[in-house]
Design a protein that fits this description.
The structure is a homodimer of 301-residue chains. Chain A is α/β, with parallel strands linked by helices and 301 residues long. Chain A folds into two domains: 83 residues, Winged helix-like DNA-binding domain superfamily/Winged helix DNA-binding domain (Arc Repressor Mutant, subunit A); 213 residues, D-Maltodextrin-Binding Protein, domain 2 (3-Layer(aba) Sandwich). Chain A contains eleven helices and eleven strands. In chain A, the strands form three sheets. In chain A, strands 3, 4, 5, 6, 9, 10 and 11 form a seven-stranded mixed sheet that branches. In chain A, strands 1-2 form a two-stranded antiparallel ribbon. Chains A and B meet through helix 1, strand 1 and helix 4 of A and helix 1, strand 1 and helix 4 of B. Chain B binds a DNA duplex (30 and 30 nucleotides) through helix 3. Chains A, B: GO terms for molecular function: DNA binding; DNA-binding transcription factor activity. Chains A, B: It holds the Pfam family HTH_1.
Chain lengths: 301, 301
DNA sequence: CCGGTTCGATAGATCATGACTATAATGTCA
DNA sequence: TGACATTATAGTCATGATCTATCGAACCGG
């Protein structure tokens, strides 16, 4: 059975006249007659009683026509809804963001995103890299802002900006007077984030430690801060030093910390990552573009 | 847009696998791929995100799929309802019957009709010939039992049985002793029905009067009985004589009348009449057949 | 690292069918 | 009866749905 034929049926029922119904459908009268007869044969029911001057729906047709109207209306609804979904820069856009980035980036880009992509409802989701990758692969996220490379051929990423790592010191720290600080000098009393934060691994790597393992070696003692905010407060309280990403500089200074560039600059590159097969790639690229544009002055040397 | 393609969409959504979905649809996998891509192009929306080991509905697909299910379900409903309507010997059958026939015929045939055509809901409608013809032509009746020929090329009729006219006399009438009665002898004090009853015209014609006109001539005086029942009671009360159709004989005898055959037999033929274009002709013929079978012993010579 | 497997996409051939034009058949009306 | 209106039929054509065969990419086990 064909939706087209159902539309023909409705046209004949409406006009009570094959010729005018055919005209309304944009087809010739013989085509309408043939198709309607086929439909009648398919259904096994005579739909219209044709007399010389009248075409009247049969009782069977009356019983069916409500369902026919519903089916055709629903098909039209499908087309309408599809039309409204056609714009890739519209609809929900679930964006994962790592915790060491979200609090400092979102306030900067939320407004510009709303302005540049008003139809796109960006919904941030904050979690650590591994969890975001899981959700991304499970189609629970459209994209994620990560500080690591896309970690498989099923994912694709686009670099947006690079933020430098800065040494964060208590004001009374012995290195606070320097213009630049070397990582080796920091290593002795450096505090790091808890496992799972990519920033932890990157900071350890920058300081020459064997990154990744849960064993921090000589670094950081027993402290494993759950959030960058906690870490900053610990440093401000004089428990040690740390490295922070550039975007957190404002908050760190507000907390009373002294920030110094590293003598051998290091940093991390923020990427927007999505599934390689993600069909709304343009949306991800548009979001990335807006963020990159807003963050251009952080571009790495 | 095609219902077939919508079914394909549902199959892919259900199986998450093109090959198995194609098998479920009874088509080859390439056909499914091509048709689904065409649907996506028509809608302007990507429906599934294809990756190497997964086929996942997009957000757009999730928004659409409810409507798709509804449309397909409604189409299936159309097929189901049509199947249930396929039997022409089922459903309502609105049957017009003239007033001089209905009270005497219906008690005889209602049971047999229910037995022979249990799925056919015969709904009697009692009115005079002209009104029945109007309703028939207006598609308000499926058929009518009339005592006249089908009166136009747009109608078709089937003779069912013939009932003789009988002279109905008061028991003390001067002719009550005869074996047969001639129409001429009756004419003097014959009572007739009011205008519109076909029986009136036929009785007048049988008695040699110029039938049809509202002017009864010497016949019937001023009495114009509205129903055969009234007429019988008037005759029983001694106000005159009349001719009655054979099926009313039982009731007439119960009313105490003397019935006598006519010396030159006359009668009327009952037909089932329907529109020439009526699509359930078999239902009309089946109803007619049951009635004719029940009335076979009334068959005219 | 490599051959086998899985799975969707593509190409080309085939065939069903929806569409057209022209015409017939039928009933209506003057 | 002839002119008109209306639906049905016949014949032809083009679109498009389907098939088989094959490709390409990703994954997997040795």
């Amino acid at each position: 059975m064909n939706l087209r034929d159902l539309r023909y049926l409705l046209a004949v029922a409406e006009h009570g006249h094959f010729g005018r119904a055919a005209e309304a459908c944009g087809i010739s009268q013989p085509t309408l007659s043939v198709q309607l007869r086929k439909l009648e044969e398919l259904l096994g029911v005579t739909l219209f009683e044709r007399a010389s001057k009248s075409v009247v729906p049969t009782a069977a047709c009356e019983r069916l026509i409500g369902h026919v109207r519903t089916a055709v209306a629903e098909a039209d609804t499908i087309l309408d809804v599809a039309r409204s979904l056609r714009d890739p820069l519209a609809g929900r856009f679930r964006l994962g963001i790592i915790p060491t980035l979200a609090p400092y980036l979102l306030p900067l880009v939320f407004g510009p995103l709303r302005d540049a992509l008003p139809a796109l409802a960006v919904e941030p989701w904050e979690d650590q890299t591994a969890a975001l990758l899981d959700r991304l692969r499970a189609h629970d996220l459209d994209a994620a802002l990560l500080a690591t490379e896309a970690d498989g051929p099923d994912l694709a990423g686009l670099a947006l900006f690079t933020e430098p790592f800065l040494a964060a010191l208590p004001p009374d720290h012995r290195l606070a007077g320097r213009d630049t600080v070397s990582e080796a000098e920091l290593a002795g009393d450096m505090l790091v984030l808890s496992d799972g934060h990519c920033l932890r691994d990157q900071v350890l790597a920058a300081c020459g430690a064997p990154g990744g393992g849960s064993q921090g070696g000589p670094l950081g003692g027993t402290l494993r801060a759950a959030s960058l905010s906690t870490l900053l407060n610990m440093v401000a309280a004089g428990y040690g030093t740390t490295l922070i990403p550039g975007l957190a500089a404002g908050v760190a200074q507000d907390a009373g910390l002294v920030l110094r560039p590293l003598s051998t600059p290091a940093g991390r590159t923020i990427r927007i990552v999505h599934r390689a097969s993600y069909p709304r790639r343009v949306a991800a690229e548009a979001v990335g573009g807006v963020i990159a544009g807003r963050l251009r002055h952080f571009a790495a040397p």
